[in-house]
Amino acid sequence: MNENAVKVLPYKITLKRDGLPLSDKKSSPGVVNQRSCPYYGARWILAPIKNTLHIIHSPIGCAFYGQNVRKKRYTIISTDIQEADVVYGGEKKLYNTIIESHKELGGEAIFVYITCVPALIGDNIERISRDAEDILRIPVIPVFCPGFCGYHQSKGHEIAMKALFRLIKEGEFKKEFKDKLVVNIIGEYNVCNETKVIKDLLNKLGIEVIATFTGDCSVEDVKNSKNAKLNLVHCRRTGKYIANYMEDRYDIPQLKVSFIGLRNTKKSLMDIAKFFGIEDRARDVIKEEFEKIKDELEFYIKKLKGKKVGMFMGASKIGILTSAFKDLGMEVVSVGSQFGSFEDYLDAYINVDDNTILVDDASKIDLELIFKHKKPDIFVGGTKEKYMALKFGIPFLSFPQDFYPFTGFIGFLNFAREVYKAIYHPIWRMIEFKY
Ligand code: SF4
After folding, report:
1. Which residues constitute the domain of residue 130?
2. Is residue 187 within 8 Å of residue 157, measured between CB atoms?
3. Ligand 1 mean position to 166 CA, how many Å?
4. In ligand 1, which atom is closest to the CA atom of 66?
5. In the structure, which protein residues have their CB atom closer than 6 angstroms to any atom of ligand 1?
6. Both 139 and 205 in a single domain?
7. 411 with 404: CB under 8 angstroms?
8. What confidence tens digit (pLDDT) does each residue in 319-354 have?
9. CATH number of 85's domain
10. Using one digit for the tens of pLDDT, what is the confidence trace for 214-242?
11. Cα 244 to averaged position of ligand 1 atoms, centre (Å)
12. 277 inside domain
């Protein structure tokens, strides 16, 4: 049993007013939790960058694990480390793999991930990357992310974001951006076309996006990103490394925004507009966009008001989603994350009631207890939680989302519709669950 979670469960209950849950701690030995390793965390950040090649210096298992990221499958190359490589070293194999893969597949930059085995045998990935770079004349960037370098995926997010500093440094300040309202979006991963929705909204304000880290960017965009006038931080947990780096090095201010939820979207647009001195334009856009969704949204709010929701997901979205559910008039009865930080729980804390359970790094047993004791009308989470909830007869909403963007006004309507569809699905009238 997870000792962090025990503190908030019914048999030893800690209510919200008693404080935030212990977070960012090592998992208890023996507990099967929902976390993944730093290598996979690094894959989540770097996988979407366009025109790049990803070499995984690893046994084949790590590579298999790292090809699916946010439900999308990516082409990756593994060095397929075998016993002989462990004994004699895998550097030559890595070098040949980089050169041959680039010959076959091309790419404007190469990321080379070091996993547990080559890190333990001491392969010098930095030297090999430099040697390959001399031949290929494109950036070959080592990503040091063996599974043992941290106790959850968040360490990999940090390593991967920091690996991008080099590309940012190599970029140039360009005249073409000088007189434009240009921003970067940092910590947005474009799972179901969210980036397009956000960009469309910003374009209506006359603002252009240079790079979206990393859901919608190329190597060129990353290099150009230092030309932005403002960095919009969508996911603080993963985005802070790049945003802080650009603030310290290039004096680019950062603004925490969220385009998930009605109040969040309105507030973010107004905050951005205030920065650029275009508040009137923002008010018009907000009015116009809200008008488009108003009538349908009213129906969903009527149907969903007072319904109970539980959630367990990646760290930084817990605060954002609690606020979005509040916009729908729903009651959040439990909030959990695989690797939430103190700030993440604080963001959620301000949106929930006194008897809401806040739990970090919950195990399967912890989640079952939450299902039994809080009886949510819907549960929100990832694939690992989905079938557990359904077996308990609890409607489920996948997050990250499966089909439609949840960002902006249109995204909020999608979100409301998906929640409504899950709760009111006819199947729940046909099955009776007792637990
Ligand atoms: S923990 Fe190590 S061996 Fe396992 S997938 Fe991660 S990098 Fe590979």
Report:
1. 38-150
2. no
3. 25
4. 5
5. 37, 39, 58, 62, 65, 115-116, 146-147
6. no
7. yes
8. 889 999 999 999 999 998 887 778 888 888 888 887
9. 3.40.50.1980
10. 999 999 999 999 999 999 999 888 899 99
11. 29
12. yes
- Give a yes or no: residue 257 inside a domain: yes
Tell me which residue of 351, 352, 335, 360 sits closest to 21, measured CA to CA: 360
Residue 406 · residue 414 · CB < 8 Å: yes
Residue 224 lies in a domain: yes
Which tens digits make up the pLDDT trace of 261-307?
999 999 999 999 999 999 999 999 999 999 999 999 999 999 999 99
Q: Evaluate if residue 9 carries a pLDDT over 80.
A: no
- Number of domains making up the chain: 3
Q: Show which of 225, 255, 283 is a domain's final residue.
A: 283
Give yes or no: residues 176 and 144 share one domain: no
Query: Mean of the pLDDT values across residues 139-145?
Result: 97
Which ligand 1 atom minimizes the distance to the CA of 36? Answer: 6
Our mutation pick for probing the ligand 1 site, out of 27, 44, 58, counting the most ligand atoms within 8 A of Cβ, is: 58
Residues 89 and 181 in one domain: no
Among residues 283, 303, 333, the one where a domain terminates is 283
Q: Compute the mean pLDDT over every residue in the chain, rounded to the nearest whole number.
A: 90
pLDDT at 3: 47
| Span from the CA of 61 to the centroid of ligand 1 (angstroms) | 8
At residue 69, the 3 state secondary structure works out as strand
Cβ atoms within 10 Å of 97's Cβ, excluding its own: 21
- Do 234 and 408 contact (CB within 8 A), yes or no? no
